[in-house]
Every structure is written in C-alpha cells, then in structure tokens.
# Entry
Amino acid sequence: MEPTLTRSLNDPIQVWGNILELIKGSVPKDNFRKWFEPIVPVKLVDQALTIQVPNKFFYEWIESHFLSLLRNCVRKELGDKGKLEYQILMDDYQKPGLIKKPVKSTFDVDDPGAIANPFVIPGIKKIKIETNLSPKYLFENFIEGNCNRVARQAGLHIVQKPGHMFNPLVIYGNVALGKTHLLQAIGNGIHASFPDKNIIYTNAEKFTNQFITAVKNNSVSEFSNFYQNLDVLLLDDIQFFAGKSGTQEIFFHLFNQLHQNGKQIVLASDRAPKDLNDIEERLISRFKWGLTADLTAPDFETRMAILQSKTEQDQVHLADNVMEFICHNIKSNIRELEGALVRIIAESSLNFKRIDIELAKEVVQNFVNQVNQELSVEIISKFVAEQYKLPIERLVGKSRQRQIVLARQTAMYLAKQHTQKSLKQIGEFFGGKDHATVLYSCNMAKYLMDSDMTFRERAEAIEKKIQKSQRAK
# Structure
C-alpha cells in the first residue's frame, strides 16, 4: 500500500518530500542515499518543480537511470501537467566558491512512448518518419584518430552528398568503439543539411522483429513500402541477420531498391563483411559495393582527446597527470574509458573528494579489476559444468554422450545470450567447433527450453547463478 501523502502545489519542499517518499520504496537504500538525498528543491511555479543537483554529471545520471521513476512520481504528485526542471550547483575544486548554472533540460510527465511503426497506415508516403536519432551523437563530439579516420571522413563526405559516394558504407569493429555514434552522427548531419529527407536509424534485431510482425499481420507489402520510401537507412548490428533467411530475403530486395534509387545506406557490424557468418553471399557481395571501414581501439593520443572532450562536456576539471594515468590504464575501448571517468566523478561528487592522482589510482584499479571479471564463456561453462556435475574438460571436449551434449548445448546457448562473443569465438572455446555447430546447439537449446521441463529447470538454475554472480560485482 502506498503511503498517504499530504499534497500542496505551492511548497516545493513539501512536494519534493512527497516525491521522495514515493521514490524511497522503489530504489535500493544505497541508490536513494547517493542520488536523491543530495537533491534540493528550489521553487515550484505553475506545476513546474525546480530541483538543484550538484553537477552536470549528477543530472545526466539521474536522467539516464531514473527518468521513468521520476516521471511517474511527479505525475502522482503534480498531476498530468507536472514538470521537473534542473538547476546545477557546480562545486569546482580548483576554484573557491560555488557556481550556480541552470540547465535547460526539462521533462513533461506525459510520456508518449515509442512511436508505432506506420506500416498499416494509408498514405504512407506522406507520413513524417521518426528518425530514432539521438541529438547527442554528432561529428563534433566524435573524436577523430588513426583508429577511425577513414570511417569518420567517409561519413562527413556522405553528409555533404548522401547517396553518391560511399554507398553503401559499412563500418565494423568490436564493441564500444563508436559504431553507433558514427551511424547516428551521419544521420544527424544529413538531417541538419537536408531536413526533408526521410531518415531512419535502427538495428537488425528491430528490423527482424518488425518483419515478423508484418508477416503475422499480412502486411509485408506495407513493411516494404515503408522502407522503400526512405532516403537514408542507417542499420546497426547487421551480424544479427545471421541464419534468418526470410529477413535476409526481404532486406536483399530493399537494399537493391534503395541503392538503385540513389538512397544512402550505412551499415554497422561487429566484423568485416567477409567474416559474417550465415549471411547469404549475394548480400555480402552488395555490402562490398561501397566502402568498408574498420574502427579499432584508440591509441593513447586519441584516448586523451576523448577524455578531454568528455570532461569539457561534463564541466569537470582533471589535471593532466590524472588524465594521463587513466589513458595509460584504460585501453581497450571508449566505453570503458568513459566508464572510468564516470566513476571518478561520482566518487568525487558523492564523497566530496578532490580529483587527484590518488583518487584516480583507487578508482581505476577497482574498475580494471571489475572489467577483468566480466562474464566470459569460461565462467558460464563452469556454472554449467557444476550444474551437470561434469568436469569442465569433458564439457569442452568431443564426447557425444547425451548428458554431455546437453550440457554443451546449454553452455553455448547461455554464452550467446550473455556475452558479446561471436558464434565462431564461442565455438573456439568448445574445442574448435564451427559457427554452424554452435548455431545448431543454440537453436536446439531454445527448442528444449520449450519442450523439456528438466532441461529448462537446469538452464534456469544456471541463469540464476549467472545473475547472482553479476550482482555480486
């Protein structure tokens, strides 16, 4: 039962107190203490509550992690027209005094939700298409280095004349190297220069789900018409088309139609087109028609430039030796680099610590240890071996004994679900199995999950162990 709250639409302290009571029951105590107790209500005007947060990082974290919760609580307290506005209180450790900076970001509590796909609406050519682009992904904050220069420059050329040069552009690389950022930067750049063009950013999984829905609703022609009317298609994670023959078939025809009409296509994948598994050769050949550009791990200079850009954006000052320490120790990808910075800022903001080399060493050491302990195929296999009471050597060996085969299929299935490893990489762990064998094992495990209660119970028990291990970190 929710607590009974006394409401007043004039007193910001009372209103925020009531909102906090609602929030308190929905988040862990530690999160409540860290992220909500430091907030100070400032004013309440026309159902718009202004709250003061310690810094820009704090505000962005709140928006990223608790927006839905805040929206619901503000709605309950202030009604459907309620708004929440932010005021930033910057605590600059390099200069005495506090700097108040308002932030323009405001959300209304009304949440329109995701825009439905307009596949079954008459007059589709006249529909204003939702781009799915995020305004934060721009060329201006995509730092260029040796690791991404070809891809970024190609993107800039596309923005000037979409559909002419580098069509298609295929960008590939490991996770967290900027593929999504670059795809959306291209989309935002084209939208700024050619606002009348129909642009969509999506990924292969959503595309596949939309196609499945269209098949189920007998609206495949509407689905095709929708995509054929695009001027720019930005499609992420095309490796997920693997093994989906129906989706590949319709995408093949859509690709041909768009390309023949001079429409721009930009694709992203975790590997080069030649290394894509279970994708039809005729599609692979079309991916090679344009330019293929890879993204690699950033070098030290690029990491430094990325970090400098991020600190300027977050309005946080880091001494050169602190930034150099972070960049010397966080090397593999951009997401980890930014994650380390976020933790340092959080530790400083929440515990009122000065950002110096000692704090950086403390946070980076813990961060590196946690990254090194991320879920791997080996860890998942150990959980499976324990559940099936098998030595892990037999699990990864060549035995065709039924119990071992079931355990191996379970491990491959869970590895595909919980890691970023490709089918080929998973197969290599299990004694050099090829991607077709791994795909078959994953499909068989999915079938057994639906048809064999004993198999499902074992798999669910392993899932719980995996989840528990991740929460413990």
Observations:
- Residues 313-320+327-370 form one domain.
- Residues 1-7, 90-127 have pLDDT under 50 and may be disordered.
- The chain is about 55% helix and 10% strand.
- Strands lie at 40-45, 48-53, 83-91, 98-108, 169-172, 199-203, 232-236, 264-269, 291-294.
